[in-house]
Specification:
With 328 residues, the chain is mainly alpha-helical. Helix 8 runs antiparallel to helix 9 and helix 9 packs across helix 10. It is globular and about 80 Å long. The two termini are 40 Å apart. The relative contact order is 0.11.
């Protein structure tokens, strides 16, 4: 974080870096993170304690030994029913496209010259990547190459923007939640090297497959904002803030250890509320409410139509006999 900040940003937000001489008994301040690299000790001190607390909340889940075991089991269950389900990634990607585009419509966006942009136009440009087309194919190739560890193809328009997006730190996707769980699962299955190697390769393949779909909505939103004239830094920040899985509340470690999908639920709920109501201005968004009402009526009508077409048999309506995946 410190290296990525400009001198002006460091003055405004912190932190301040200070080298410590441990031989002289120097100590870091109360609101500080200490980094040790060999003989070099640097303290990053924060004026705002809340900023330090936010960083700790994003990196330290829980220090309770019992909860850490519950948390591992909960994450392992969530990993199994999402990342190991081949249908989850494409379905979740489509949902991500829709949710991020709706949030993007409510954002105040400005180009590099400070001129206000049409957020609805930017959102439509983002959604154009969801439609099967040559640029949709190029996006999938770019995200899949990165997801499976291949080098960037700098002749690809989408790949160059993906590399730029990653450099801004604007990527936060659902699959990131399972990085530590996946490693623990691989290490804990068997000790034999040959089996561990096979499981590790399988884990990488699963992670690559899911990440390929996860990156699509993030990259498309970033490209849409960059094409509208936003700077890489601003577009990266907005892309990250559309759905930031790094955000965690003060007590989220306890809740996440007990409930598998608590964090995505909190993030989705917060995004929905912020879309319908602006807490800064204290005003409701009429357009967002109109869109919500339209979506609700369309999907209710579609469900009623499908139920009528499905008809009944001795087990009741055929729609009710389908699994959750089909019904959703």
């Amino acid at each position: 974080i410190y290296a990525a900040m400009t001198p002006e940003e460091r003055d405004t937000y912190g932190p301040h870096a200070r080298s410590l001489n441990t031989n002289s008994g120097q100590l870091a301040g109360e609101n500080a993170i200490v980094r040790r690299r060999g003989q070099q000790v640097v303290a990053y001190e924060f004026r705002d304690a809340k900023l330090l607390q936010a960083i700790r909340g994003a990196t330290v889940e829980t220090n309770n030994h019992a909860l850490s075991w519950f948390g591992f089991g909960t994450r392992a269950y969530a990993y199994t029913v999402t990342q190991l389900n081949p249908f989850f990634a494409p379905k979740n990607s489509i949902r991500d496209f829709w949710e991020r585009s709706e949030i993007l419509r409510q954002r105040a966006l400005f180009d590099a010259n400070g001129v206000a942009l049409d957020a609805n136009k930017v959102a439509r440009s983002m959604l154009s990547y969801l439609i099967p087309s040559p640029k949709n194919a190029r996006m999938i190739v770019a995200t899949s190459r990165y997801a499976f560890g291949a080098a960037f193809n700098r002749n690809s328009y989408e790949a160059r923007y993906l590399e730029e997006l990653l450099a801004t730190g604007g990527v936060s996707v659902y699959g990131d939640r399972f990085a530590r769980t996946r490693t623990q699962m691989i290490d804990g299955i068997l000790k034999e090297k040959s089996v561990r190697r096979q499981v590790a390769l399988l884990g990488k393949a699963v992670a690559g497959y899911n990440r390929m779909f996860d990156l699509g909505p993030v990259l498309s939103s970033y490209i849409a904002m960059r094409e509208a004239g936003m700077t890489a830094k601003d577009a990266g920040a907005q892309a990250l803030d559309l759905m930031n899985f790094r955000k965690r509340g003060e007590n989220s470690g306890v809740i996440s250890a007990l409930f598998a999908f608590s964090q995505p639920a909190f993030i989705g709920g917060a995004n929905a509320i912020a879309t319908l109501y602006n807490p800064v201005t204290g005003r409701f968004n009429p357009r967002a409410w109109a869109r919500l009402g339209t979506y609700t009526l369309v999907f209710l009508a579609a469900q009623a139509l499908f139920r009528a077409m499905a008809d009944d048999d001795e087990g009741g309506n055929k729609i009710d006999q389908q699994g959750d995946f089909v019904q959703n």
